[in-house]
Amino acid sequence: MNRLVKKLASIRYLLLFAFVLRLLFVYFQYSGDIGNHLAWGRGALEGTLGFFHKSFPGFNQPNYPPITILLFSLSAWFYQFMQTLVISINQAVLLFPSKIVPLMETLNMQAAFIKLPAILADLGIGWLIYKLAPVKKKSSRLIASSLYLLNPAVIYISTVWGQIESIPIFFTLLSLYILKKNYYLSHVFFTLAILSKQTALWLLPIFLILWLKKHSLKSFLQGASLQVVVFILIYLPFTFSLLEPFKLYLQTLSGSSTLVSDAAWNLWHYLYPVSTLDSVLFLGLSVRLWSILLLLFSISFIAIKFFKNRITLFQSLFWLSLVAFFLQTRVHERHLFPALVFYILAFKPSSTKLVGFITLTLYHLFNLYWSLGLPFI
């Protein structure tokens, strides 16, 4: 019995259980953004050249970077492949349950397939937490991974809503995991993170310090040059221009909102509970400018503490994620997600730290549900 328990208490079985758990929730509900993801994925299958200039009637213009668009198109292709396969099997095998055919055609099923990249990224993060957790015992590392993989807020945002917050964080953690083995691959994976979603840029100051600490200035500049090359190459299916990738990326940095808070329970939400533009004046300055000044001060403070080794790498990433959510305007409720991941890795297990993590989880979950309650009841 003890041998069986030890065998089951492994990261492989935890990942399998987490995947099955997500499959149980993936079909029934999804957020409105899924319509955009489906449209963009199908649109990219038709051709990627000039994609970011295409219009999608009834849907938003593409505002995610290339990696996520390519993942959406891969999910759309996989859905079409599975749909064709099911129809073929249904026609060839008499005993095949025919009701699966109309089930495959539902919008819910298409939404389930478009959620797969985020779900797989969830599993990848769970595995990387197991590898990166600041504890030696296997049982403690499994608990750390479980805190993420079985977290209701995490499941809610990626599997129920279908948001993609886990994808850039997966590449971010992969960049850290590979750093000891290959310095230049660390640069590549972080580039993939910022090309998955722009929110990964919040973490850039800490990564810059980390890369400079690990190697010489020459190696750092080589790594930065490699990032530029990878950045352009990833955009290559979308544009043959060497300069347009930077222009396209910069156009999306301001976000799709100009509100003091776009459903995020942060500082500005409590100061301005009614929907308000961030151009509103506060003590003579616009709220937007206040948020930038507060953010720059906080980032500088955290970066200096990390540079002087007064806080650990993951503690700095946690605090950076927290201030980016609570001090910045135009923030969405789902942008608190990275803080959950880095909290697990930042602090060694204790009852106090567990209470803090549960509190942060519930805060995030309630904010998500307040913004978009699923299922609708």
Description:
The protein has 377 residues and is mostly helical. Among the domains are: 165-253, no CATH class; 255-346, no CATH class. Helices cover 67% and strands 1% of the residues. It contains 19 helices and two strands. The chain has a two-stranded antiparallel sheet with strand order 1-2. A hairpin with a 2-residue loop joins strand 1 and strand 2 (285-286). It is globular. The N and C termini lie far apart (44 Å). 40% of the residues are buried. The mean pLDDT is 94.
Layout: helices, strands, pairs:
Elements (H helix, E strand, L loop, with lengths): L1 H7 L2 H15 L7 H14 L19 H27 L7 H5 L2 H8 L1 H17 L5 H12 L2 H10 L4 H14 L3 H12 L9 H11 L2 H19 L8 H8 L15 H5 L9 E2 L2 E2 H21 L5 H15 L9 H10 L4 H21 L6
Antiparallel strand pairs: 1-2
Helix pairs in contact: 2-7, 2-8, 3-4, 7-8, 7-9, 7-10, 8-18, 9-19, 10-11, 11-13, 12-16, 16-17, 17-18, 18-19
